[in-house]
Amino acid sequence: MKNLIFSALMLFVFIFNTQAQERLTSNNNYSKWQARFRVISVIPMAGDDLEGVDVGISTTFVPELDFTYFFTKNLAVELILATTKHDVEVKSVAGNLNLGHAWLLPPTLNFQYHFYTGDFKPYIGAGINYTIFYGVDEGDVVGMDYENTFGFSFQGGIDYNLNEKWFLNLDVKQLLITSDVRVDTGLGVLPVEVNIDPLVVGLGIGRKF
C-alpha cells in the first residue's frame, strides 16, 4: 500500500513538473527583439490660444522605423523614429498668413502590452515623446521660433504573422505635442501656444530577431 501511494505521489510530481516545464517553455518561446518598417500618415490636429485664428498644419506621408524589446512575452518597450515636414498657415478674418514650414523629429518611447490570438497579436501602449523642431522656413514673416517640447503618446495596433520571422503591422498613435511659438511679424513678436497633437496611422512589415 505504501509503495502504491509513493508511486502515485511520484507520478503526480512527474506530471506536475512536466506541465510546469511545458508552460515555462511556452512562455519563453518568443523573440526578444523585433523591428518594423512602416509608411505613416501624420495628421496634425492643430489649434492655438488666439481667438478667431485658425492654425493650419499640413498632413504628410513619410517612412518610419521602430525597434521593440520584449521584457516578457507580453510586456515590451518600443522606440519609434521618424521625421516629418509640415507647411504652416494662419487663417483669420483678416486673411491668410503663410508661416512657411518646419521639420519635426519626435522620437517616441512607448511601453506596450501584447495579446496573442493565433497569428494575430494586438497590442496597446503609452509613453512619452520629445519633439525637436528644425529646418524652419519663415514664410511671410520675419522670423519663427518653435520651442522643443515633451509630450505623451498613446498607441494601439496589431501584428499578423506571415511566418516565424516576418509579420505585417497596422498601427495608430496619438501624440500630444504643444509648442510655444514666437512669430516675429516685423512689427513685434507674437507669442502663440500651438497644439499640434498629430494622429499617426501606419502600415508596414516587421521582422523578429
UniProtKB/TrEMBL annotation:
Q: Which GO terms describe its cellular component?
A: outer membrane
Q: What is this protein called?
A: OmpW family protein
Q: Mind telling me which InterPro entries this protein's record contains? A: OMP/PagP_B-barrel (IPR011250), OMPW (IPR005618)
Q: Which GO terms describe its biological process?
A: transmembrane transport
Keyword annotations: Signal
Q: Which SUPFAM superfamilies match?
A: OMPA-like
Q: Which Gene3D superfamilies match?
A: 2.40.160.20
| Signal peptide interval | 1-20
